[in-house]
Design a protein that fits this description.
Elements lengths: L4 H11 L3 E5 L3 H14 L3 E6 H7 L3 H12 L5 E8 L2 H9 L4 E4 L6 H17 L3 E6 L17 H11 L3 E4 L16 H10 L4 E3 L7 H10 L1 E6 L1 H15 L9 H23 L5
Parallel strand pairs: 1-2, 1-8, 2-3, 3-4, 4-5, 5-6, 6-7, 7-8
Helix pairs in contact: 2-4, 2-11, 5-6, 7-8, 10-11
The structure holds glyceraldehyde-3-phosphate and zinc ion (ZN).
C-alpha cells in the first residue's frame, strides 16, 4: 500500500532504518523531495504543517498540489498533515484525501491529550487515515528550546493503548527550529521506548541532530525522522547566493530553481544516510 504511513514506518522500524519526513511549504519543496526520494530509492513523507496552512490561508490548494506530485512519483510518497492542533483542520484534511495526520495534543494535560487523540483516531481510522500523536512536548515551536523534556516509557505505553495511535512522537532531547546540529539525544531512552512500544517512534526537531547522532538514534529504534529547519537553511542559502549577485535576476525561477535543487540534493543525502544501504 503506497500511502500507508503505518506500514512504511513498521517496515522501516523492522529494518532499523529511518523514514525521512520533510516539510512542504511551497510546490518547489514537494517536487524537490519527490525527486530526492526517487534518486535515493526510498519512500518519503511530505508534511504540510498547520503553520504552513496558515501561511497559505487555506489547506486545499497546497494539499491538492502535494497530492498530485505524490501520485506521479515512482516511489511510495505519503502526504501528511503535520502538527495539527485544530481538530477541524484534521477533519478537513481527511475530507480532502490526506494520507495521514499528526494530531498534536502535546501541549494539553495527559487526560485531555488522550481523550482528544482517541477521538481523532476514531475519526481518521474510519476513513483509512493513519494517525501520529505526541506525548512529552518537544519544545522550540515558540522559539523557546526545552531539550530537557522526556517521554516516560510506561506512560507512553498507556497512551498508545488508550488512544490506538499508529505512530508516537516522543521527547528524547531534540527541540524544534534548531539552526545548529548539536542536540544530544538520549539514545538509551530511545531504545527503552522502542522496546516498550508496539508503534514506530517519531523524532521531531531533527534539524538539530548531527549525522552521527541520527544514525545512533535510528540504530536505537527511532524511525520517522522529521526535518524542516535544516532544509530551509539549505534552500535559503542557495537563494541568497543568487540574490546577492551584483545584477540579481528578476524572474523568480532564476532563484527558485537553485533553491529547489539544493533541497533535492540535501534530502537525497539524508534519505541515503537514514538507510545506510540497508534498504531501497
Ligand atoms: O514536524 C516537523 C519537525 O519536527 C521539524 O523540526 O524544523 O526542527 O527540523 P525542525
Ligand atoms: Zn515537529
Amino acid at each position: 500500500e503506497r500511502h500507508d504511513l503505518a506500514a512504511l514506518a513498521r517496515e522501516a522500524a523492522g529494518q532499523r532504518v529511518g523514514l525521512g519526513a520533510f516539510n512542504v511549504i511551497q510546490l518547489e519543496h514537494a517536487t524537490a523531495l519527490v525527486r530526492a526520494a526517487e534518486a535515493a530509492g526510498r519512500p518519503v513523507v511530505l508534511q504540510i504543517s498547520q503553520n504552513a496552512v496558515r501561511y497559505h490561508g487555506a489547506l486545499e490548494p497546497v494539499l491538492a498540489a502535494t497530492l498530485a506530485v505524490a501520485r506521479a512519483a515512482t516511489v511510495p510518497v505519503v502526504v501528511h498533515l503535520d502538527h495539527a492542533e485544530d481538530t477541524d483542520l484534521v477533519r478537513r484534511a481527511v475530507e480532502l484525501g490526506v494520507h495521514s495526520v499528526m494530531y498534536d495534543g502535546s501541549h494539553l494535560d495527559y487526560d485531555t491529550n488522550v481523550a482528544t487523540t482517541a477521538e481523532m483516531v476514531a475519526h481518521c481510522h474510519a476513513a483509512g487515515v493513519v494517525v501520529e500523536a505526541e506525548l512529552g512536548e518537544v519544545g522550540g515551536k515558540d522559539g523557546v528550546h526545552a531539550p530537557g523534556a522526556r517521554t516516560d516509557p510506561d506512560e507512553a505505553a498507556a497512551f498508545v493503548e488508550a488512544t490506538g495511535v499508529d505512530l508516537l512522537a516522543v521527547a528524547v532531547g531534540s527541540s524544534h527550529a534548531m539552526t545548529t546540529r548539536d542536540a544530544v539525544l538520549d539514545t538509551e531512552l530511545v531504545a527503552a521506548l522502542a522496546a516498550r512500544l508496539t508503534v514506530p517512534l517519531v523524532l521531531h526537531g531533527s534539524s538539530g541532530v548531527s549525522d552521527e547522532g541520527m544514525l545512533a538514534a535510528i540504530e536505537a529504534g527511532m524511525t520517522k525522522i522529521n526535518v524542516s529547519t535544516h532544509l530551509n537553511q539549505v534552500m535559503t542559502a542557495a537563494v541568497r547566493e543568487v540574490l546577492v549577485q551584483e545584477k540579481p535576476p528578476v524572474d523568480p525561477r532564476k532563484w527558485l530553481a537553485p533553491g529547489r535543487q539544493a533541497v533535492e540534493d540535501e534530502a537525497t543525502r539524508l534519505l541515503r544516510l537514514y538507510s545506510r544501504g540497508r534498504a531501497g
